[in-house]
Amino acid sequence: MNISPRKLNTFLLFKLPSAYFCGVRTTSLSDTTCVVSVKHRWINQNPFNSMFWAVQGMAAELTTGALVMSKIKLSGQKMSMLVTNNDATFTKKATGRIQFTCNQVKAIASGEGQTIRLNSKGINNEGTEVSDFNFEWSIKVKSKK
Fold first, then answer.
1. Fewest CB atoms less than 10 Å from the CB: which of 33, 47, 53, 54?
2. What domain range is 64 assigned to?
3. For the chain, what is the radius of gyration of the CA atoms?
């Protein structure tokens, strides 16, 4: 079973409902790129009339996590994945529709644990970057018991 935008959005509904109800949606996923979109609305706003930073973080994390999940699936191995570190920079108020994109291709080495650092940028309708997120993923092969 391949990972697709539709399957990721269904996954959000059942496993991460806060992201789903805030409007986080995967719009495209390929071997090299994941794009997630979220629109500034009442449910995901902060008191300053822009998108709450945590909603931006959910969308950005999904872009990187979806690529990691798809690479793990291609490896055919059972692996665990965990965000071990992240940082973000916010450069403009996030209003309107924001698209987060991760297009960093990283190979998953089979048979060993590793750490992968991926970047996702949030761009508004005018093409201006509003936020920049980095996520460090720890990936480990599950031991056979």
1. 47
2. 5-141
3. 15
Sign of the CA dihedral running 120, 15, 25, 40: negative
CATH of the domain at 113: 3.10.129.10
d(CA 120, CA 13): 22
Summarize pLDDT for 76-93 with one digit per residue, the tens: 888 999 999 999 999 999
CA atoms of 83 and 139, how far apart (whole Å): 9
Helix axes 5-15, 53-75, angle to 10 degrees: 120
Residue 6 confidence (pLDDT)? 96
The contacts of residue 53 (CB under 8 Å, 6+ apart) are: 46, 88, 90, 131
Q: Report the domain count for the chain.
A: 1
Report residue 9 CA to chain centroid gap.
Answer: 12
